Each structure stands twice: as C-alpha cells, then as structure tokens.
Amino acid sequence: MFRYPILIRYASDFLVLAVFVRPCLLCLPKFVFELLFYLYYNVFTATIVFQATLSSLTSYTDNQEVMFPSVTYNEGSGYSNTTGKFTAPVSGVYAFAKQTCTDGNYAYTAFVHNTQIVLASEARTTSASSCSSAQIFVHMSKGDLMWIKTTSNSYLYHDGPYRQTSFSGALMHT
User: Fold this and answer.
1) 59 and 39 share a domain?
2) What domain range is 56 assigned to?
3) CA 63 to chain CA centroid, nearest Å
4) N or C: at which end does the chain have fewer Cβ atoms within 10 angstroms?
5) CATH number at residue 74
6) Is 43 left (phi over 0), alpha (psi -120 to 50) or beta?
7) pTM, rounded to two decimals
8) Which portions of the chain are predicted below pLDDT 70?
C-alpha cells in the first residue's frame, strides 16, 4: 500500500510531518484531521509578539519586578501588564529586548526566565539621561515566564518616543 507524507506550508518552506497516510484522505481517522488542524492553526501559524513601556519616571528598590503598564502591542496575549510578566503560550525560541533609561540616576535591570537571571545590564549617568539596551534569545516551554526585575535600587525613565524604558518579545521558532 502506498503512503504519502502530508505537507504543511510554513512561511516559504515546507515542513514534512511524521504522519503518513493512505492515498484516500477520506480513510483517515477523525483525530488525524483534528491533529493536523491543531498543528497548522496553533503551532505553525502562531504569532506571538508584544511591546510594553513605562509611562513615567518610576523608582524601584532592589530585586523588584518592573511593571510596564503601557502595552503598545500584544498579539497572542502572552504579556500581562498587571504582573509585568510574559507567559509563553507555546514552546519555542523567543527573542526578548529591553531598554532601560534613567535621568541623572542609575538603572540596574535583568531578564529573568522563570527564577533565573539570564542577562543583567545597567544605565548610569550623573547629569543627562542615559539608556542601556540588551537582547536575548531563549528556548521557553509552554507556561514559562520571562520578566524584567531590578538588581539594585533603580530610577527608570520615560520621555515620550526619545527615551523609553521598554520590554518586548517575539516567538521566533516553534
């Protein structure tokens, strides 16, 4: 009996699933159709991206979670502006970026994946405003958390489109 792979289009490439079927598609059990439908619409076409910013100068103490109340984009609803945390809706490789700005003070912040600090950075100035940015790529399982926290007393600054303390992320690959 001949069997053919089912091809699902993903971006400009074709992925071959490990599902081989008979030439008669009507002969497939219902669960196979449901599996293919689920994979195509929930895994291969998942768009998860967010961007959030502070809306004013905010002071934080050491080891405090940074809340970004102004959400400019949140497709996939992974970011919560009430907790300040991103929850991975699907497993995959994610890219995250943060920019921390301060005005005549210090800003010490870090990416936290679940409970572990992944990358820390600082912005310091004594007179003018200063910003520091950092990016990371991390594999996350469904339900994993990513957020920003301070690693020392910090003053995070927001000045319109010019100096924004922000947190953003996107699913790169499932």
Assistant:
1) no
2) 49-173
3) 21
4) N
5) 2.60.120.40
6) alpha
7) 0.73
8) 1-46
